[in-house]
Known about the structure:
Layout: H1 8-20, H2 25-32, H3 40-48, E1 52-55, E2 59-62, H4 73-76, E3 89-91, H5 96-105, E4 110-114, E5 120-125, H6 126-134, E6 149-150, H7 163-173, E7 177-183, E8 189-196, H8 197-208
Parallel strand pairs: 3-4
Antiparallel strand pairs: 1-2, 4-5, 5-6, 7-8
Helix pairs in contact: 3-8
Amino acid sequence: MRTIELNQRQQSILEYARKEGPITGDELASRFHVSRAALRADLAILTMAGLLSARPRVGYFFTGHEPKKMITQALTRFKVSDAISLPAIVKETDSLYEAVVAIFTADAGTLFVVDAEGSLSGVLSRKDLLKAAIGGDSLHHLPVSIIMTRMPNVVITTMDESALKAAEKLLSHEVDSLPVVEIDSQGKIKIIGRFSKTNIARIFSSLAE
């Protein structure tokens, strides 16, 4: 049996809700000096776990359930393979314009970049593309390899990793999604899926059902 391990920000959110609740998402974002979107994953986990409750136009409030009493045995049995999504993939040689089209067509927050042999070589986010566009770079002529985050600085997960561990990676590294990979005998990293905050929400939903 394993109890929920909250990070420092999640513990602080609970403390604010316990002492001052109901408290809105905007108020919490102001306390942590971040955007409301940056707190979305933390609030989703706390709410889905039953530690917080939310009311429209009112805010979040503490439910009275202590984290140490929340048992996550059911959650830990889920693997990444139980909640995998299709990855959005581009090639290193694709232009930034092609990447913009791909990211919006797939409605994804992150693109996974492969080399000529189809092995994972980097990742590209919406923020990366926005920075390039604002900076005046030529989206039609520059390849994605110019601005992508390269391996080995990419956080990955595998099919047999626990969903809880993958969720912890998403939160601790503050990324939208992780590439789900297989590594062959030659060390090539093949992308077989994507694990994102949406997948976490689906797992919580299935547990509730």
